[in-house]
Amino acid sequence: MSRLRFVPLVCAIACAVGFPAAAAATVTHDGSRTFRVHEGGHDYNICGFPGTFDMVISTEWHSVEANGGYHFQLTETSRWTVTFDDPTLGMWRGRGTETQAFTASPGDVQQLHIIFNGSEGPVRIHEHLQLVVAADGTLRVDVEQVTTDYEACPS
Fold first, then answer.
1. Residue 74 is inside which H or E element, if any?
2. Is residue 45 scored above 70 in pLDDT?
3. Pick from 119, 130, 107: which is nearest to 9 by CA?
4. H-run or E-run covering 83
5. Of 71, 82, 85, 148, which has the maximum CB count within 10 A?
6. Span 45-73, average pLDDT
7. What's the whole-model pTM score?
8. d(CA 153, CA 138)
């Protein structure tokens, strides 16, 4: 299953790097978009079993650039089914919700915050990441948590 959720993150970082940190423009650039993607394919599920995925992803993002600063916010929901190659495993349903926020102020700290909550069949998934880039360019990982209930996977 592809991880399209990192595409908006890369776009947000590229946009933030693209504007000069010392700029003091009073122009506001405001953008947003909502879209829905339907995709499928054959891959391994969270427990490592091969199967065919059918997924629908709905994404909404909003960005604002003003006064030399930049903010990006994304919300994404996904729903999918995986039909396993092994018929004894049947079919599982999955769902996920993700939020991302990126803020950059000129000459100041830049923060990226990502949270994902989801489940696939009986397996619950929670991911939380927060990165901070100091004014001197030092990268710090404030939070990096991944909790996946692998014990719920069939043996």
1. strand 69-84
2. yes
3. 130
4. strand 69-84
5. 82
6. 93
7. 0.74
8. 39
pLDDT digits (tens, 9 = 90+) for 60-87: 999 998 888 889 999 999 999 999 999 9
Write phi, then psi, for 138 (nearest 5 degrees): -70, 130
Q: Residue 85: how many CA atoms within 13 Å on its side-chain side? A: 9
Give pairs for 1-5: CB < 8 Å, separation 24+: 1/41, 1/43, 1/45, 1/53, 1/55, 1/80, 2/39, 2/41, 4/37, 4/39, 4/57, 5/76, 5/98, 5/100, 5/116
Quickly tell me which residue has 């729903």 as its tokens: 79
CA-nearest of 70, 66, 46, 13 to 119 is 46
Tokens encoding 33: 């978009």
Kindly state the tokens that stand for 108: 């100041």
